């Protein structure tokens, strides 16, 4: 395995550490949420097994991403009071407003069926022998499933049913970013870079015409984009930045 390919293998491993349908099979599937599509995809993608260093990087990336996205329950998370059966209590929470959306009940979605649908979906995204294209396919098209009856819900499925204010896709993105950074760094470490442009609201509010409003917004977006473009040019930077599927400038 070449050093150049390791970051893409880390992304693939991270993208298959949790199944997209996790919320719909958790506490319902006898095989566990890691015993379905995750197991089958990893058999196909890593027929010789997952390298130990990548496996460790993914585990660490998962822990970091989980800690960044949600409160930690510790050992108490295994107790009944801390468990949420999403098929019986499917609630989504808006990440900004905190508004709750009660979806009723989803018990009619059979775990075996949704696993089969998910498996077919991701199998079609695999490009045999090309980790880079497969990882990019998972990132771009994973949230877009070709199934009319579940297409909208699929994009909103939560990563943690106890804290349903972020999607499984956001969690997989962040885990992949951390895991790739750990793999690419010779010390197995990562640094988080935070940038801000401001004051944004005051700058845009100074507009007096529609064209001023557009120009101000466009200028800020362009400045941010030009800054981000530097990252892909340096290997030790591009691997740590996860772009959301709907990112645009």
In short:
This protein has 249 residues and is mostly helical.
Fraction of residues in H or I helices: 40-55%
Morphology call: globular
> In percent, how much strand structure appears in the residues?
under 5%
Task: Tell me about the largest β-sheet.
Answer: 2 strands, antiparallel
**Radius of gyration, CA atoms, in whole angstroms:** 20 Å
* Class based on secondary structure composition and strand pairing: mainly alpha
SS field, number of helical segments:
11
How does this structure look, described?
By secondary structure, the protein is mostly helical. It folds into 2 domains: 6-189, no CATH class; 193-249, no CATH class. Helix content is 47%, strand content 2%. The protein has 11 helices and 2 strands, in the order ααααββααααααα. It has helices at 6-15, 22-25, 37-45, 52-69, 111-123, 131-141, 151-156, 168-184, 200-205, 210-229, 235-238; strands at 91-93, 100-102. It has a two-stranded antiparallel ribbon. Strand 1 (91-93) and strand 2 form a beta hairpin. Helix 1 crosses helix 4, helix 1 runs parallel beside helix 6 (131-141) and helix 4 (52-69) crosses helix 8. It is globular. The model is unreliable at 238-249 (pLDDT under 50).
Based on the model shown, name its key terms.
249 residues; mainly alpha; two-stranded antiparallel ribbon; 11 helices; disordered C terminus
Task: Summarize the helices and strands and which ones pair or pack.
Layout: H1 6-15, H2 22-25, H3 37-45, H4 52-69, E1 91-93, E2 100-102, H5 111-123, H6 131-141, H7 151-156, H8 168-184, H9 200-205, H10 210-229, H11 235-238
Antiparallel strand pairs: 1-2
Helix pairs in contact: 1-4, 1-6, 1-8, 4-8
